[in-house]
Every structure is written in structure tokens, then in C-alpha cells.
Amino acid sequence: MGKLISGILILVLIAGCYSTVPITGRKVEFKASSSQVAKVAKLASDEILSNHKIFNDYNCQLILKRMQPIASDALNDFFGGWNDWEFILIQDNKPDIYCFEKGKIILTSGLFSILKHDADFMLLVGHAVAHKYSYHYDERLYDVPINIQENKLPIELKRYLGLQDDKIYPFTTFHEKEADYLSMRFLANSGYTPIAGVSFWESIDKKIHRLAYKYVGSKYSNESYDSIDNKKFYKEVDKQIKFYTPFFFKKHKITKKRIKALTESLQDTLKLYKSQENKKNLGTIYTGIPKSILVRKRNIVTKKPVYTKETITLDPSKEMPKNMIKKIK
Hints:
Blueprint: H1 2-15, E1 18-20, E2 27-29, H2 34-50, H3 58-78, E3 86-90, E4 97-98, E5 104-108, H4 118-133, H5 136-140, H6 155-161, H7 173-189, H8 195-217, H9 231-244, H10 247-251, H11 256-274, E6 292-298, E7 305-311, H12 316-319, H13 322-325
Parallel strand pairs: 3-5
Antiparallel strand pairs: 1-2, 4-5, 6-7
Helix pairs in contact: 4-7, 7-11, 8-9, 8-11
């Protein structure tokens, strides 16, 4: 009898180490207990809020006030279980969005510099929640010792949570692809075209490459970009890309595999979008917001990284592939 009870106890303990992502059905294993993860999540949120002021820009707050009830209803409908969603806008030029705690989303003022319309807003909200919903933070804590003293997060833990500028441990491509799939379905389920999701990540990737090409190309001023075809040039571009990549996109790396998976998911998500009664397409186009973004460059003389502002275009049609524009009309 004692052996039977011990066996049942072992099975319960083993079962407690696993969970399932409801929509994808993936089995998740994690070492940290739910109470540990909850404590880390709260400390992470508290640290962000204690180090930043609330951003009261009229245009951004207007968008947030309008979109908060829409996003809350959509999140409850798609992800379920979390009734009251709190959206907090903080002053930080770096584009970022956090969802460490259930029901709490923190957005930076810099995030609005890369949003063109409601569909972009909903995409990134869905993407942030998908990382939380799919236990990605729990999995990232698997190999990190959680030694919390005096209610302060250790630096190594901050790096895994994307809170430390000096070194970043990005989400894996697998985690990004899962969050992409869920956010694309969330977008479609909310009545926004999932094509906007593919366009967003592709356009940011192109902007980063364009800035790197522009910098390296300045060394080849006597030749046009099209006529340049040598390995040295492209190797130099690859080196420069990291200096032109905003912090948010270092955490959420854009890879060819991600773009391919996003494009392939359109077949499934477009069907879901077409089945919605209340189609919003792209939603409201954002105007009146300064479209500049802080990017990291390398000073030619000192070789040290510096931050400068780059202008972002407002017209969403210019960012979409021509063969996709017709589909969303």
C-alpha cells in the first residue's frame, strides 16, 4: 500500500512539471514552480514601472483609450481565463511591449513609432500575450538559477527577461514561430487581416537591412547598390545589422524561417479572417504620432555605438508587397 501511494505521489510530481499550450497542444516542461514564476513576473513588472514615468502624450493615450476595451474583449475571447486587462503606457523611446503578469500589458511610448494602424497594435499585443500564454518565460527560466534576494532580480535573470541592455538572450526561433502563429490567429479572430502581420515583420526587417546597406554603401559612393556584388560588401552589411536593430527586435529576432512560417500560416489564418462577421481590415490608420525610432549605430571615428533617430514611413500600403494589397481590399 505504501509503495502504491509513493508511486502515485511520484506520478503527481512528474505531472506537475508539465503543462499544455491549449491552442497548439504542445507539451511544456519547466523546472520553476508556478509561485516562483509569478514572483519573477511581478518583480519584472514592478521594476519596469518603478524606472519609468507614465507617458501622457495625447495622441498615444487616445489610441490606447480606444483600443484597450477592443483588445481586452479580443484577448478574453481568444486566450480566455483573464477577465480584467490593464494597459499601461510608459515613457521610453525604445519600442517594447511586456506581458509578464496575467492581465497586465506594459507598452512603451517608442512602440507607437513602429505602429501604422490598429492591426499592428493588435498584432504586437497578441504576440506579447502569446509568449506568456505559451509558457515561454517559464521555459526560459528552466536553466537559470532563480536566486532572488531582497526582492531584486539578478542581472542574469534580467537578461533572459529582456530587461538588461548590455546583453540580450533572444527568444528562440521556435518560441517566436509559436507566438507568431498564435498572434496571427488572434489578429484574424479579432477581425483584422492577418496579412498585416506578415507585412509588419517583413517591413521592419527591410528597414533594418536598408539602414545597414545605406551605411556600408556610403563607402562605395561611386557605385550604385544594384551594381555591387561582392562577398566583402555583404559580410560588412551583416556585421552592421546588429547596430541598426532596435532593442525590441533583438529580443524577437526576425529570421527567414520566421517570415516563411508567417507566410505559410496565411492559408489558415485568412480562412479564419474571412469567417468573421465584423471585418475591420487594418482598422484606423495612425497619424499625428512622431514616426522616429532610436537605432544603434557605430561612430566611424571612435568606433563606439551611438543612438540616433531614423524616420519611419506612415503609409502602410508602401510597406506591403504589391501582390498582397489587392487581397485586403
